[in-house]
User: Fold this.
Amino acid sequence: MKRFADATAGVKSGRTDDDAQTIQGFVGVTTHEEVYRRVREQILFGGIKPGSAVTLRGLADELGVSSMPVREAVRRLIAERALLLQDNRRVMVPPMTREAFDQILFARRALEPELAARALEKLKKADIADLQAIDQSIDIAMRAGDTEGYMRANYRFHFALYRKSESWTLVALVESIWLQFGPFMRTAYGRIGTSTIEDHHEFALAAMAKHDASGLRSAIDADIGQGMGFIGDAVLSRPS
Assistant:
């Protein structure tokens, strides 16, 4: 369909947009990989809503591709615990349980501050300037109440930082974890809005400028606690 075609055409023409910055570009990858990344992106940013089942045919039609690459993408995402198979034709985002929430929170607090501290050792002034620019786009989205724009920019900020650590095994683990809570962030922000969220990235950036690993760890941990707290309040405290 047009949305998928436009996204891939933009990359091929050299144009950079938010989608291309958020998920690595499609140049030089197979159709199967392109489809996987597009479905993954939908999950990350709440395009597939928790509690709503979707069919493989529906996904294929939306992306304008055949069922085969969609089936392969879904298989991979089920293995990553991002999707749950209901039957042979329908999948859904797994429900958020208290047990899953506690494990996700534990894993994030164990891994993400560590990745940030490792990245700090390799950050250059230009890298910090890039992160500041992303944070400015976060501020704009927050003031505008742009939930999806906020989520995309927030993702870019965290993973632009984490990937600087070059700890690829840990980065892959964190990417998988984000798939498990991303759809619920959309639910939470849809209820509370974005205009009153405290921007812990400012504290993280200040710590980076001072090369303060402890301060950076604390800022990332506080950011995680705030975001996961929103999910706990919005999803676990009352029905979706």
